[in-house]
């Protein structure tokens, strides 16, 4: 099969419904939309259950988890069973509300997919085929769904910054005529499974994507929410100790948010969601930046890291665009002013724009492209893998 040249989905020429799933550092969201109508989204999706934007299912229905916790990570990476336990009930409820019983295509965008996605690749094809009637599945890194939400299938670069940070650049269509080989990323268990999965990965090295960072809060994500929050908390603890480089305003915010500074390590280190806890302090750094030179310097450093990531991935083409997406940029001027200055210096010919949509909208766009045989984004074994799933013939 060739990228962008998929077989028709299902037994009908109607594209039907598609499902987008966004699993990030702050929880899980699901959206259902018709493949023949634009998905408008609905902002943050509400709590537990949120209606879509526009008039009913034509423009989309969505759900988001009420508890802002990421998917469970186990020995095989992101735990497929725990993700499915959240997603499948939500998807069935959305289908009932839309008056449908199956989805033609699904795109799952997950933080850590590139390095922690083995269990998802093994289990999701069977589970989604049997539960939702899915015939085509895309497994994507959250940076890829952020790219699709921000720029669609246009060439450019996207910086997605929330709890973490990743930058991706692409020339969509560059792999569209490349032959792709069947992989071994299908569902486990040929005895009694309900679907077969054929995995398609880009034949060219790198799959047409350029990636920078996204290595997690211990090894990277430089300039992201957890990075800023940790730097702010460090400056607060320096002030608590009386060390050079401390910030009294940030110390005051730490104690307002978390309690006594000396008790913070005991509260923070046992938490399984440490990156999200660190990132929760990033807005406090932004609020202090106008009056605190230490906080302002943290954000200038963050802006430099973000611009470096964008520079590393942005394709050198005429009319290139850099889109900024993710909750971190809602911090506004304290971060965006130094960031735009850095981008103007490093990418003087690039147009910087806000994202057209978020990663959930990007997941819906990719699923729609699968269902309508119009996917142009480069395929890549780690970043964007497409699987054809369907009924298993009975064994003799």
UniProtKB/TrEMBL annotation:
List GO molecular-function terms, semicolon-separated: kinase activity
In the record, what lineage is assigned to the organism producing the protein?
Answer: Bacteria, Bacillati, Actinomycetota, Actinomycetes, Kitasatosporales
**Record InterPro entries:** ATPase_BadF (IPR002731), ATPase_NBD (IPR043129), Euk-type_GlcNAc_Kinase (IPR052519)
What keywords sit in the KW lines? Kinase, Transferase
Highest taxon of the source? Bacteria
Q: Where does this protein have compositionally biased stretches of type Acidic residues?
A: 179-191
Organism the protein comes from:
Streptomyces milbemycinicus
Compositional bias (Low complexity) spans? 193-202
Residue ranges of every copy of the ATPase BadF/BadG/BcrA/BcrD type domain listed in the record: 206-354
Coiled-coil ranges per the record?
Answer: none
Tell me the protein's name: N-acetylglucosamine kinase
Residue span of region Disordered: 1-20, 35-67, 177-207
